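WP5 quarterly update. Target: Xyloglucan galactosyltransferase XLT2-like. Source organism: Salvia divinorum. Length: 449 aa.
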Amino acid sequence: MFPTATSTPLPHHCAWLTLTILLQLLIILFLNGALHPLFLRWESTAAAAAACKHGRIYVYDLPSMLNKDLLHNCYAISNAGLGSPATGLDAVVPRNLSAAWYWTDMYAAEVIYHDRVNNYRCTTSNPAEATAFYIPFYAGLAVRKYLFSNSTAKDRDRHAASMLDWVKKQPPWRHLNGSDHFLMLGRLTWAFRRLTDDDNEWGSSFIYMPLMKNVLRLTVERSRWDDLEFSVPYPTAFHPRSESDIRQWQDWIRGRQRSNLFTFVGATRKKILNDFRSILMEYCKKETTSCRVVDCSMVPCSDGAPAILEAFLDSDFCLQPKGDGLTRRSVYDCMLAGSIPVYFWRGSFEYQYEWHLPKNASNYSIFIDNNIARNDTSIIKRTLEKFGKEEVMRMRETIIDFLPKLLYSKSNANLGGIEDAFDIAMEGVLKRFEQQRRLMVASKENKED
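Structure tokens (predicted):
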């Protein structure tokens, strides 16, 4: 039979037949569960896109001499930067949490960040898809071996110069001259700011090398006058494996009975004129009814040592003078234990850790000017005694609330919806580059108009 003027055209009839068959196939697949993996894969892709709304990170594969080779025979930064598993803490922390504690070096962040970014949900193997480019150069480890030896300025700059010579040849670098690149500096920024080529001057000149002028830097202490630097928390000894680890530790420090008003952990520095640590040490050793002392010249004070953790756990406040710079790892050990830091220099908290700590430092800490304390150390006890139990609990609860932001979890940890210090740092970097890209596009459009 041939189609007539009143019959349905054959192509239209075939289209409806095809559609009917497809619908039947979909129903059969659905009833047999075959479509479920497809829907799950779609949901997973959509979730990943939402989680990475600020962009993705491309990780360079640097020559091993610039990172992995620097780890040889360095046990303090084994286990992807976490260090060796902690021992002797069974009487200090809940037993089922002891496996989450490591002897983590205070300057191990560049190794920790490299491991974490390699396992980060928002990375990409395609440079064309990247918003940010991570350079996993272990700058702190590269310079450390020369800092305390008879080295030349050229020795201390060698690895940094080699890294920049390598990265400048990469296509992504040439696209924007490194302005969408970033790296992690495990040491304080001052170790990379040598001004001259004098062999007697401290550190390397890495930050002042011309090719570094556009590169964003994460560091455990930033220069307040450098807009390309952002400080991130020092690593502590606690590396949670799960959301449960975090919640249990929060409950533990919340319920801790504390017998000391304040504590001081540290060692005097006899080579420093009018050493403020010596003043605090002498004062605390006399103020035995209120202050607990851990003298690190007498007691082992390796990173996260039981004596340190126990002292902080037993004290409402912890005295925090400046360290090698204005900041100090001890501040994070203190807050990890739910103790309230007492600062003596504004530079220890102002213009530092803006992504991780509350803007109003008085919500979680006390400030006593070091010049006033030098003249009258008794002001320390008088000031701290003014804070009633409810005020102390309020400040401690503030610390407990933001504590996850100060922690570095293990790479395979499942923290549920909690973001740790690394997550917050990566989000900050991606937001910064996203904003930068928008400004560049807007500027280009304005020029075209």
